Amino acid sequence: MNLVLFDFDGTITNKDTFTKFIVSSASPARLIVGGIFILPAFILYKLGVLPASRMRPLVSKVAFAGVCEKHINAKAQGFVCHYLPTVMRKPVLDKIAQHKEKGDRVIVVSASLSPYLNIWCQGLGVEVICSELAVRKGKLTGSYVKGDCSGIRKVIHIKQRLNLQHYHNIIAYGDTEEDYPMLNIATTRFYKGKPF
């Protein structure tokens, strides 16, 4: 069995889904007040001073802290049904299907969020490792369970889940520098669809 690792945003999709989900699921009041609150951080992010791996958790905190988990899960279901199909790269979906037909173990490894990625991956019949939103007493805390799943954390999360020595061939697909650590543990790697 081969192990096949796919990044999600920009690799399986042709657009960023993290931001779209935040905008489509957070209340207008949170978007406005939260936008003001994190404006300094957003400026630093745009200037390249603050990395995306630190910006995403801030945004998630503002958008989801104290929100009912069932409400966000319902939003995620709608997001998966109505929005995600519009941004999928069909050749990549075909590639995933091919790997599954060969009996490969396919895992989506992404910094995007658990509410919608869990649903989408379950529907496709693949595993997922992603930025998991923490829940306490039925409400989201706004924090991540194990941090932002990007960069070296992708590798850490993969190794916590799997014994890589069980796989003779590891194939990885990514599209940004945040995917480099994951690509580097692979025996066969693709960057933006091309051998890397």
TrEMBL record:
Domain of life: Bacteria
Membrane-crossing residue ranges in chain numbering: 29-47
The entry's keywords: Hydrolase, Membrane, Transmembrane, Transmembrane helix
GO BP field: L-serine biosynthetic process
Transmembrane helix as UniProt keyword: yes
GO terms assigned for molecular function: L-phosphoserine phosphatase activity; magnesium ion binding
Coiled coil: none
InterPro entries: HAD-like_SerB, HAD-like_sf, HAD_hydro_SerB1, HAD_sf
GO cellular component: cytoplasm
NCBIfam families: HAD-SF-IB (TIGR01488), HAD-SF-IB-hyp1 (TIGR01490)
PANTHER family on file: HAD-IB FAMILY HYDROLASE, PHOSPHOSERINE PHOSPHATASE
Record's protein name: HAD-IB family hydrolase
Annotated organism of origin: Alteromonas profundi
